[in-house]
Recover the amino acids of this structure.
């Protein structure tokens, strides 16, 4: 028995017919698609974030929903509109972890090396994982928002406001994905990457999570003022509860861009460190 | 005809500033040659392959693959080289058709071309009937074959196979050997093959280099290397070790070289068969009665013993047993 089934089989596609390389955007699309395929084949990696986010929403709204009757700054507002952004942010940050996990999975299986041996752009390998993460987190934040709407949320700015909120969530998640990807590239180790996503906790809880920031004091107030998520929450809450406020939305956007600049620089440096090939 | 040479000049790889994995390795692989890189585990084979295929950068020295420098023209090297690493890098969640299509696309084929190519390759490595199964469910042999198919996706000029048959059963090993020969003969691919099996290097390679402890200790055609030992050997085994010493004295001057190995005395001499009667008569004169007497043609194992002072450690015995 031999592996050879047909000696001429290799001549089906001659190299002469082949373009020299795949255009960069196509590389990115191909890599994104591949990552999505594997993510959907391991739903266990995605579903927990979704459940946790929906859980936050239900529990916080049920237990703290009465707060808007007496907490200064919230009186007369919907507590659901105040707490939904927390769930959206947690879904965005959790979904962003998918990007780092996708990369670390490839490093651990050795497939990342296989891809490095092709003419594929190193940037496309990373962008593919980031975009797949972005698509997952967009789905997750949308689902959480739908749950909020089903619970009776009536956003002040209507559908356009919801879309702006989801857009902010997408950008925030992508910025955080830069961080998880950087940690994946740097460590090449699933446990370390998983550990890095725990940054999720200070980002989500050292901020105006449950009460407006002016009710916080001491170190937690300082932490909240530094935390970019605070400004993103402000923007989302304004959209849901008080109406259009260009200045607040813009401040949220700037906070995200600063965060993204840091994480992307970190990711690029980590990519270079990994592919500099020691 | 494209340049299909591999040239390594004084390659050195030092990890973390201390461990010397590859120590001043130089060789030249000619176009269309099967070059065997033979050595025991940890000899520096995989590190050399990683440098030649652009995965790691040499600490010093230089190398070209198909005329392209592996450091400054890494992109060009990747385009013409096909690589199957020792550690098979396959995403267990993907299916073979998907992996092959992506691989071919990354080398510049359209989706349609890539799918056609993938089907051909799956047929070639006899995986056509399992295209819908996830790679994670494949057996070791199937994974190796798929990995080889991936390395062939773009019909490379130069193929690097890092221990392609390690862990395979004898039948699968034969399959890979046949395929390697076919790729070499029909498509003129230069093949750089690392192995820890003496038999494999002997069987496949036009020329081999033996690497041990990061250094090349011998290089040449297998027949040439064996001939360089100068001689075949007569092996005389006695009933006790003491007889060996007496035989050694009795036979002094008859062989180029003698080597005692417990109860066996090996005599290395140019025309062993013709010398048997003389050896036997000398032993009889000395009152020694051999328990057995055999003739041996030199093997690569002998070559290895000669250059390193020790027997080949790898899983060679396992191959012989199989």
């Amino acid at each position: 028995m031999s592996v050879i089934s047909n000696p001429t089989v290799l001549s089906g596609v001659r190299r002469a017919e082949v373009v020299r390389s795949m255009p960069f955007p196509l590389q990115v699309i191909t890599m994104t698609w591949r990552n999505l395929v594997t993510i959907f084949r391991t739903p266990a990696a995605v579903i927990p974030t979704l459940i946790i986010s929906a859980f936050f929403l239900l529990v916080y709204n049920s237990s703290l929903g009465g707060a808007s009757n007496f907490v200064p700054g919230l009186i007369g507002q919907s507590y659901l509109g105040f707490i939904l952004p927390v769930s959206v942010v947690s879904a965005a940050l959790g979904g962003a972890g998918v990007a780092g996990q996708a990369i670390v999975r490839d490093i651990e299986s050795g497939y990342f090396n296989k891809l490095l041996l092709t003419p594929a752009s190193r940037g496309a390998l990373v962008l593919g994982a980031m975009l797949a993460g972005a698509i997952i987190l967009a789905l997750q934040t949308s689902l959480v928002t739908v749950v909020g709407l089903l619970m009776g949320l009536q956003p002040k700015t209507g559908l356009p406001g919801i879309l702006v909120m989801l857009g902010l969530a997408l950008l925030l998640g992508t910025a955080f994905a830069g961080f998880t990807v950087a940690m994946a590239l740097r460590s090449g180790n699933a446990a370390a990457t998983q550990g890095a996503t725990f940054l999720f906790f200070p980002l989500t809880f050292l901020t105006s999570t449950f009460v407006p920031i002016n009710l916080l004091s001491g170190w937690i107030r300082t932490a909240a003022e530094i935390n970019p998520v605070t400004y993103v929450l402000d923007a989302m809450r304004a959209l849901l509860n008080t109406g259009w406020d260009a200045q607040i939305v813009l401040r949220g956007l700037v906070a995200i861009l600063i965060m993204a600049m840091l994480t992307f620089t970190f990711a690029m440096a980590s990519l270079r460190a990994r592919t500099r090939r020691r | 005809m494209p340049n299909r040479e591999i040239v390594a000049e004084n390659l050195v790889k030092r990890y973390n500033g201390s461990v010397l994995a590859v120590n001043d390795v130089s060789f030249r692989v000619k176009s269309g040659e099967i070059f065997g890189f033979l050595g025991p585990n940890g000899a520096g084979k995989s590190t050399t392959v990683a440098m030649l295929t652009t995965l790691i950068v040499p600490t010093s020295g230089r190398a070209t693959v198909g005329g392209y420098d592996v450091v400054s023209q890494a992109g060009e090297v990747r385009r013409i080289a096909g690589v199957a690493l020792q550690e098979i890098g396959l995403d267990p969640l993907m299916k073979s058709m998907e992996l092959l299509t992506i691989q071919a696309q990354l080398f510049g084929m359209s989706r349609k071309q890539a799918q056609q190519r993938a089907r051909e390759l799956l047929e070639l490595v006899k995986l056509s009937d399992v295209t819908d199964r996830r790679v994670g469910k494949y057996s070791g042999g199937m994974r190796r074959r798929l990995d080889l198919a991936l390395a062939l996706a773009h019909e490379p000029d130069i193929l690097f196979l890092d221990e392609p048959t390690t862990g395979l059963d004898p039948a699968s090993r034969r399959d890979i050997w046949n395929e390697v020969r076919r790729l070499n003969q029909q498509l003129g691919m230069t093949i750089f093959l690392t192995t820890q099996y003496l038999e494999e290097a002997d069987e496949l390679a036009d020329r081999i280099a033996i690497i041990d402890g990061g250094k090349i200790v011998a290089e040449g055609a297998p027949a040439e290397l064996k001939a360089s030992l100068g001689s075949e050997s007569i092996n005389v085994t006695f009933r006790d070790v003491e007889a060996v010493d007496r035989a050694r004295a009795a036979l002094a001057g008859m062989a180029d070289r003698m080597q005692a190995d417990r109860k066996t005395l090996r005599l290395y001499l140019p025309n062993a068969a013709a010398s048997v009667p003389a050896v036997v008569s000398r032993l009889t004169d000395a009152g020694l009665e051999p328990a057995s007497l055999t003739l041996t043609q030199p093997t690569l194992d002998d070559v290895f013993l000669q250059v390193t002072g020790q027997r080949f450690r790898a899983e060679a015995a396992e191959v012989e047993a199989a």
Remarks:
- Confidence is low (pLDDT under 50) at residues 315-322 of chain B.
- Chain B is about 40% helix and 25% strand.
- Residues 64 and 172 of chain B are 32 Å apart (CA to CA).
